[in-house]
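Hello everyone,

My group is preparing for a crystallization screen and wants a predicted model to guide construct design. The compound we'll soak is zinc ion. Before spending weeks at the bench, it would help to have a computed complex in hand. I've included the protein sequence and the ligand's SMILES below. Output in structure-token form would be ideal because that's what our pipeline reads.
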Amino acid sequence: MPSITFLGAARTVTGSKYLLELDGSRLLVDCGLFQGLKELRERNWQPLPVDAASIDAVILTHAHLDHCGYLPRLVAEGFTGRIFCTQGTGSLCRIVLPDAGRLQEEDAELANKRGYSKHTPALPLFTEEDANRALVQLQLIGYDRPVPVADGVEATFTNAGHLLGSSYVKLTFANGGGRPKTLLFGGDLGRYDRPVLPDPTPATGADVLLVESTYGNRLHPPSEEEEKLAALVNETIKQGGKLIIPSFAIGRAEEVLYWLRRLEEEKRIPQVPVFLDSPMAARAREQYAARLDELDPEIREASEHLRARLHAEHRVCAFCTARFQVVSSPKESRQLVASKAPAIIVSSSGMASGGRVLHHLRAALPEERHTVLFVGYQAAGTRGRRLLEGAREIKIHGEMVPVRARIDRIDSMSAHADSAEILRWLGGFDRPPAMTFLVHGEPEAMEALEATIDQRLGWRTMKPEHKQTVDLAEFLS
Ligand SMILES: [Zn+2]
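Reply:
Good plan to model first. Here are the tokens for the complex, ready for your pipeline.
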């Protein structure tokens, strides 16, 4: 009897993991880490309800850690099957997973040194070596090509426009002599009319659907990147300051660089030095530049145009400005922190919870002439959230730093579809699914989306609980 068990992202936004049990095979769709609150993170340590070795294959929708970050642990626990994903997802996994392993090891080491873990010794959830071992099992698949992933099951990956390589995945099951049945895993859904990533590809239908609901209860503000970014760059540079933009290393940095290049080209901001000070972001940027044909048509055109004008290597130019520089070594990063010259600095982490951006903030926050611009969601408890809430001083590397710099935000750069965009995507279905599971959302957002779907489409929906198993026979027969 076919069934699905929700091992993550059920009434919460992290830990995406769906166990599909079919006649004789077991598939895991997404294999994400729980992040955020401690009670959620502790779930990463709980054993899976099935033996990892008994899972035949894993299918990944994209390379954000809340969708792929549990893979090293799964492999360490005995999973030996293939991990199917797109080429873009594979290349980003090669960047994020070993880094996540390294961080786990460093955290465990620190906990042991300071003795603040209740476990002795504190252990990493997985190591860099575990991550590298998991990468060997990646099986890269092109978009829109059905491939067999288990006995009688084919998977098709389609561009979801949420991150480089991101996809929604349709599984097709043979159904005796009848019409084949389909199960569609929506993954994280991207947005419409954005410049770097393409619109989510329209989906035509499925018997069973899983759809995210992160922003099921809100509408994104109208695009404010151009006006606000131009104003902040001009004002900050005029007063001789630095514009520091904490940014997620994967995805967001490319969007920021795109806007800076465009504003510069339109002569709305001066040509100033722009530094990308994050080794991970620099590597991800190379992957974006190498896979332009999977990005938005607008950025492909812009690249062609630039190539003609500058006779430069067009692939790199999509995400760079006239005076763009990647900061590679820690020594160069320290020099940049010490420099007094006006500049724009894009550095991670995006919520100022760690990474090189902390050094920039520590140096810049006490001075009025600088600006710190947040371009992503700031979770409760992070330095980013405290700065936006108007903190007058903030602790960095154990020291209180006074805040006199200007703190600002741009809220329109989210990578997740809002309620109207989710509905627009669902509107492409030619028939209602027999069941639509709402996943990847906080309860409030989920309830709001459920009400909207009911009102506008009249579809049958369910909001599964963590670890709930649902028999799919009724919907797939
Ligand atoms: Zn995502």
